Each structure stands twice: as C-alpha cells, then as structure tokens.
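Wait, can you check?
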Amino acid sequence: MVEPFKHLAWDDFRLVKAIADARGLPAAAAQMGVNHSTVFRRLGQIEEALGVKLFERHRAGYALTPAGEEIVAVAERVDADITAVTRKLVGRELAPAGELRVTTNDSLLVHLLTSLFAQFRAAYPTIQLDVVLTNQALNLSKRDADVAIRATDKPPENLVGRRIANVAWALYGRASDFPDPETQRNADLATLCNRTWVSLGDNLGSLNVVRFVRTHIAPENVGYKVNTVLGLAEAIEAGLGIGHLPCFIADARPSLVRLQPPDKQFEAQLWLLTHPDLRHNARVRALMDFLAAEMSQCRRYMEGDLI
C-alpha cells in the first residue's frame, strides 16, 4: 500500500473524507461541486490504485473500512495543518484590505450593526464584508468566520477579544394593551404570569429568559414560540402576548412598553471575538477597533437606560 499511497493527490483524500462525512456519493458530490458519476468513478480509481476497499456499501450508506479510516485520519490532519498555516499567514497581512467574514445574529445586525458596517465600509473601502447570520457559533479555528459578534456569558476559551457592553433584557407588552405604562412598568409579576406569553423556542433553551418561562408560566399560557429574537419582538408587537426582549431592540419600537425593570438574571455580555492567530491582522484589527469605539457610545442604551 505504501507505493501507490504516495501517488494520491490531496483532492483524493478530500473526496474520501467527503464520502465518509456524507455517508454517500450524491451529498459528497454536491459538497465538492462535481457530479455523482465523477465521484463514483474517482473512488473506484483510488481503490484500484491502493488495492483495497475504502468503503463497505450498505443500504444505509457508505461505511468506512479500516483502510478508509486511515485515509480519512490523514485527510483530517492535513486539513487542520493547512487551515492553521493559512490562518497564520492571513494574520500577518499588513494592509487593511480584502474580504472579512463576520458572524452575528439577525437582531444585532438589524438594530445595531448594519449602520455601523456602512460607516466602516466608508472608512475602509478596500475591505469587503461577508456577514453570516446564525444563532449558532461558527468555528473560527477553521475560518468559518474571522470575527464573531456575540451576546454570551461564556465566550469560547480558544478565542480572544473584548467585552463591549452588557445587554439588558426586560419584560415587554404591546403599548395599546397597557395604556398606563408608568403603572405597568412595575406591574405585579404574579398577575402578569396569568396573561398570554410569547417565548423564544427550545433551540435557545439555554437562555435564562427561556428557563424563566418554562419555570414560571403555565404551558397553556405560552401561546407562541419563535426561534429568533426579531421574531419575538414582532410577535409582541402583533399582540400575541407579553415576553422578554433585549432593551435596545424593544425600546426602539414605540409600540412596545416595559412591564418590568431590566432583570440582571437575564443579562448577557456582548463580545467582539476572533482567533488568536488573526488578532494582529490589519483588517480584523481595523474592524474590531472601529466597532469597539462606535458601540461604546451606545453602551448605556444597550444596558437598559432609557435615554
């Protein structure tokens, strides 16, 4: 196996790993941007060159043989090495130019970041921003993103960055349903618990606001769930119920009113994060410095002060 093994190209290793990950040829072909027949033919050529089968073909999909597992292990090590070298080389770039991938969520983008990104692009026209919206953490070690802007109390230990502000949360309702906001701002919680509520979905069940609803609100009183904060704000505006929102989102909507003061137990920290290898990269540093300066000006607003 040693002699033919050394003649394998990197794309051959990638193909075997793609089939292993997808457990089949069609999904692997889509991942690699080729057609099914190309993957089938090339896999046959690789197995013939090595003189061993890399997969067992079952109805449930393609399962690795011991030889296939060795190929995939090599592919994973090489891929990790290539990613690490690329990341370090990118980190040494001197000029703030080129594409910069940023990950955040939709609520931060709509209510805070889009206008800041516009200002940043005006200041740094040679940097192109590629914004990826997701509530899930992307892998900055694999350069799925270069900069992450996240509200979290536990930033990943393998990332570096800075805390910008605390994001305050409070209980809100539709203003037309609560015509006396001064009274309702300190409404009795026990009374409010008997009203109809809206909540974030179970995919965000680790948030304290979701745990609160599970613990304190009867299931039949939770009339609506949605898996984004923006969707939650829209639901409260539409009169579907009362619910918790970040103050900087809800306070920007005249149709909503606070029913309780911000609660520290629901607070989250807003972070700018990157990989240690990228912290000195010119475009990463430019964006993080710019956002830190601009976002600090609205810190009191994000922390729940009614300005």
Q: What stands out?
A: DSSP finds 13 helices and twelve strands in the chain. The longest strand covers residues 160-167. The radius of gyration is 25 Å. The mean pLDDT is 85.
